[in-house]
Give the backbone structure.
Amino acid sequence: METRKNILTEPIVDIQNVCIRYGKDPEVLSDIKLTLEKGSFHFLTGKSGAGKTSLLSMMYLALKPSRGTVMVFGTNVGYASRDAMAGLRRRIGVVFQDFRLLEHLSAYDNVAVPLRIKGMGENEIKKRVKELLSWVELDKSMDKICSTLSGGEKQRVAIARAVINRPEILLADEPTGNVDNDIASKLMKLFVELNKLGTTVVIATHSKDLIAEYNYPQIHLENKGLKIIPALRRI
């Protein structure tokens, strides 16, 4: 019975005594500790250069720590095989600041990629992709090649691609930075709804307005360290 309890309460991400450095450069982050429970929602904050992108990169398994332990879905990523890492990554949705779209493909085909990798049938793919692109107001642009889209449109395609597979973890680096306020509000509603369905969400942002509007705690990076700022209590 005790073993079952431990399984149920196991963090979805557990980072202990981690340091990140690039080559022989000074450490970007030092001795950080972070535990994320399944279904949690956090903003990731800090000044430019504080290490937000590095922390996200480590959480989506593109970067290994210089030292320390990173557990994702209960797996120590430092000892995971290449196949195991690929399996873990398929459970994580990522919105990159530089989009990383397949520029030669259409918006539709970019968003469809995760579902095709999963082996989903084309009829179901068509239904899901059209519904999501309509939600982010790209239904009239879904057949356009991504290289022809504006920065804001590319941002929305990248977000749609990240969430189409209903990931267990969603990591987003400035996801509302290239869109107007109305679209930003719609995207945040999408993230909130995913979170209500059980997705653990971490959003890196500089927007004080966004943080003030949504009542979620912050993972704040400063002086190579990390602290949790509790959510503001609504009056």
User: Anything to note?
Assistant: The two ends are 41 Å apart (CA to CA).
